[in-house]
Amino acid sequence: xxxxxxxxxxxxxxxxxxxxxxxxxxxxxxxxxxxxxxxxxxxxxxxxxxxxxxxxxxxxxxxxxxxxxxxxxxxxxxxxxxxxxxxxxxxxxxxxxxxxxxxxxxxxxxxxxxxxxxxxxxxxxxxxxxxxxxxxxxxxxxxxxxxxxxxxxxxxxxxxxxxxxxxxxxxxxxxxxxxxxxxxxxxxxxxxxxxxxxx
Length: 199
Description:
The protein is an alpha+beta fold. The protein has two domains: 6-72, Arc Repressor Mutant, subunit A (Orthogonal Bundle), CATH 1.10.10; 75-196, Umud Fragment, subunit A (Ribbon). 27% of the residues lie in helices and 31% in strands. It has an eight-stranded mixed sheet with strand order 4-3-5-6-10-7-8-9. Strands 1-2 form a two-stranded antiparallel sheet. A hairpin with a 2-residue loop joins strand 7 and strand 8. The protein is elongated.
């Protein structure tokens, strides 16, 4: 194989790493070709040669460099599932809008998802319209937790309380103009741990 341009190899490495930092995944050959200004076939040939030289790892689908592998161990890819009033969370794959890269050092949760807050029922807890709420998947909650709960086939974000004497759940909106909800059936889907403010 003809020796390829070292400058182009450097541009490919930089493009792979920049794309990974921005998107949380490896670029496709088409995306990489757009980034470096070469045809897909040319980029493919470069990837094969760079793989042989140990400059990166290419398995025919994904591209990894030493830097992206290090980043990968420090990044969580959490699915953004749309707005909080988006319906049941069981069909997760159908609801995924995109994946969001979250630093593990900050969020530290393996099994989480992200929902976009819709409405003003939690404004007094600092959760406003359009904010992204990072949720740890779990089916149990403690009194005072802010939960994603499935009520009447819709998801809602509220503060959770269980009254043992009356044996019922109370979902409390953090908005003094709204009333508590006493659902006949309530399934906790997860606990809200972090809020990413809307710009």
